[in-house]
Amino acid sequence: MGKGAIAVGAVVAVALVGGCKAQAVDSDGKAQPVKISPTKTKPETSPETKPKPDGPDAPSGTPERTAAPEPPPKTLLAPGQRGDQVRELQARLRQIAWFFDNPSGAYGSSTTTAVKGFQGKRGLPRTGTTDTVTWQKLVGMTRKPTKYELYSGGGIPASKPDKRCLTGRVLCISKESRTLTWMIDGKTVSTMDVRFGSQYTPTRDGAFTVYWKSRHHVSTLYDTAMPYAMFFSGGQAVHYSSDFAATGYNGASHGCVNVRDEKKLASLFAQVRNGDKVVVYK
């Protein structure tokens, strides 16, 4: 390569590096203009044309739906109501020491107070009414009440009369329902709550007759009053008991049939005659 060609290359290189307008020379040494295209740059993406994010974090074009609020719990029992379910509510509350009266089946102020206390203890609104949530909580903490828990204060409907009670004048006494029903020729005249002897001094079952009536009797064995006593089997008698009237079924007799309603028993005592039947059955 000749010196002239080397010189021309050097000039072109210097011109390019320096950033000036480059010129080339021909074989005669004359300058020839050289066109250099400007460097093309990639245009920036405008905010309007930026790609949208994709994936789970991408904002949705549809607004999210808000879940509808749950409806309030349904009211099952409320103050002023009466019935068997109210009685069961009271008996269950009594099992866990929130209700202290005998179940009556009437939703009164004492029941409302007990329900409020139970609700507050478990973080529920203290409404005093029994809704589905309150009832489910109570059922989960208690057991199904027995018949005697439902009627701890008495008032159990009388059992079906024993067939021996269906003729004549009979004191029909059921241990199952804890009732004495005064019957004449198969028809009920009156019914009252009774209690019996303990397992150590049980009241005898069977058919007997009234053989002695004693209006102001006092037990010579236990030195206790036995008003309106009607004896039917040895020392066992139907009579009024002030202890039964005061403590209910928390106690027991020494074998006699205790009655706690003195007024009802006084009326019965006036009607019963010696020789009338007494039937004690389970």
From TrEMBL:
Chain intervals with Basic and acidic residues compositional bias: 41-55
PROSITE patterns the UniProt entry points to: LD_TPASE, PROKAR_LIPOPROTEIN
InterPro entries the record matches: LD-transpeptidase, LD_TPept_cat_dom, Peptidoglycan-bd-like, PGBD-like_sf, PGBDSf, Transpep_catalytic_dom
Limits of the L,D-TPase catalytic domain: 169-281
Keyword S-adenosyl-L-methionine annotated: no
Pathway terms, separated by semicolons: Cell wall biogenesis; peptidoglycan biosynthesis
Region (Disordered): 23-85
Stored SUPFAM superfamilies: L,D-transpeptidase catalytic domain-like, PGBD-like
Catalytic residue list: H239 (proton donor/acceptor), C256 (nucleophile)
Signal peptide annotation: 1-24
Pfam family, one: YkuD
Keywords associated with the record: Cell shape, Cell wall biogenesis/degradation, Peptidoglycan synthesis, Signal, Transferase
Protein name according to UniProt: L,D-transpeptidase family protein
Organism the protein comes from: Streptomyces rectiviolaceus
